[in-house]
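Page 42, continued from yesterday. The earlier attempt failed because a stray header line got pasted into the input along with the sequence. Redoing it now with the clean sequence only.
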Amino acid sequence: MDSRHWDKLAPCYDDEVFNVLAHDQQGLIARWIAECGGPRRIASDLGCGPGRFLPLLARHFRKVCAVDHSDELLRIAGDAHPGLDNVEYFCRDIASGPDDLPRVHLALSVNALLSPSLELQRQMLDFYSEHVRPGGALLLGVPALESAHLARQMLIEWNLREGDPVEAELCAGFPQETADDVSRVLQGVIDVDGVPTKHFSREELIALLRLRRFRIREIARLEYPWSTEFHNPPEWMQAPCPWDWLVVAQRMRTRAPH
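This time it went through. Structure tokens are written below.
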């Protein structure tokens, strides 16, 4: 999804794009932003969209860099938060590794690392490592691969309880796929509303960040109700609920071992 896609989506962003902050019922993101903040510190919101996190970041940091590759989303963010004098807006594609952004004490990246392209994923992860100062933190929110698999199994269970034949539901839940489809799923790329979207497993995140000189401080589940996955889910569909991974990783001062 390039900048033109997001420019076009910008006017209806709040209706079309899931609001992670509003659904963070335990306040995990707010807690970590406050813990990492300070009167002399700099933060960035990488893929800030219309600026949902900017008031929270601006409250706890001296300066905040709001970064997005959509001019239209940045305009909406600026119009929505005219009183945030310590926020500076940058129209940049972080996958290209911009070198004019300051290094930060905290980089927030929530549902920005979504590209199905392995090359773009690696470029963004490499940029996170260069962008965060040694000793600083990366607060990374990404779709959970395990949750996507759970949702598929729950859909099969739901239909079986409605009386559908087992064989039919297994075929519906795990349809015939091309070799390319299988390859994408094995890489964690799953369609979300028709858009190929990268999902990450817990162990994958640990390995990828460790190789980029990050030490994992916490991996938590951002849990959501089943209504975020299905329209009118049945009452029996309770915990475990769907979730995203929230990773808090500290940039190490020395190079990580290979």
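Notes: The longest helix spans residues 145-161.
Reminder to self: strip header lines before submitting.
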